[in-house]
Amino acid sequence: MNVKSYLSIAPEVHAALAEGRAVVALESTIITHGMPYPQNLEMAGKVEAEIRAHGAIPATVAIMDGKFRVGLEDEDLERLASEGHSAAKASRRDIAALLASGELAGTTVATTMMAANYAGIKVFATGGIGGVHRGAESSFDISADLAELGRTPVAVVCAGAKSILDIAKTLEVLETHGVPVLGFGTDDFPAFWARTSGLKVDRRYDNVADIARMLALQLGLGLGGALIANPIPAEEALEATEIEKHISAAIADAEREGVSGKKLTPFLLQRIFERTSGKSLTANIALVENNARVAAQIAVALAALVPPARAGRG
Questions:
Q1: Which of 48, 50, 148, 162 is flagged as catalytic?
Q2: Which of 16, 45, 48, 77 gives 20 to 30 Å between its CA and that of 106?
Q3: CA–CA dist 179, 171 (Å, integer)
């Protein structure tokens, strides 16, 4: 089956790809499930503007009206933001059912990587990746993001893994899947709201040109994706021990209320937002904008090294 039948690329994004210009993909579960309205809509607009300000074209991805939409109009972003949690949360296993039903869905890191690859986009900015949940030795709760990074040739710029996860186990699973973990200006793997997790990246890069040269080989050789860890700006970071207290309390709340599976991450983020009096949301927005900025710079450098992508390849 030809994937083009289920792929709708915005004209601006299609033109940029055909001309070999830089494009950065963006996920949409951060809009539907990661932040409350209207902060989610404001964040989406700021992130797209940040990408444009640094020379690239933004391509927010969602599942809408029976298609992967790659590049959204303002009214589409408004629809996603206002629907919020009533929209579906689409990971790899959900795609066929959601496309068949025509439901509205925000795309996770894994699903956004897939859509970006279908469209020919090589760089994707997000907040933090999913990973191995705490207690996974009993629950086996491991995000599909990690396996997708191992097989789909897209570079993901993030502020590390969400602090609610078991980051050490997350890095072990990434190693198992052969995913290089690169630090942009850091030797330490960041922990989303905090600048460090106490764990190391595989390799440090201090400029985007060097990252772009590495990615051109990684993606060109079909070695799967790569993770670029970009710490939250110091002035917006939360103190690691403080945020850990809130995470532990939120996890205890989830266990007490029987929350698990797809509902767990949105539940924990909301509880942490409440417990930090909104500081976690402010930090989240800052780190997403910072990741978008770095992703745009990497995409521009990468576009100068590789020939134009064939948009919407099937």
A1: 162
A2: 16
A3: 9
